[in-house]
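Each letter names a residue; the fold follows as tokens. Both lines appear below:
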Amino acid sequence: MDHKALALEMRGLREQVTGITDTAVAAADGLLIAADTADTIDPEGLAALAAAGLGLARRTADATARGALRRTVTYGSHGCAAFYAVGDTALMVVLGDEGMDVDHLNRATQSALRRIDLILTDKAPEGV
């Protein structure tokens, strides 16, 4: 796996969407793959919680015949946490402040998620 390409994707998303404060990519089982988080965030704990939440959301989508889960967003009084499925084997977490435009984030993540999936499965072309 190309860790440099993965870090560039995470950084690029942060540059595209105002208000992103932290990002992480984890395996579906909750093991951290990469993180760009503040010192106040435990990236391993975040990855584990995100995997548990995304797993529950996937089961809910399946049980209610809503198709494949794309994302789940949790809103708090100081911002939000968005959890995105990356293929069937990984997830991406994006934390944002109160000013983050979640609709813009959802649009911006689509191509980044495809590229991250390619990076994680070692199918990305050189230089991506």
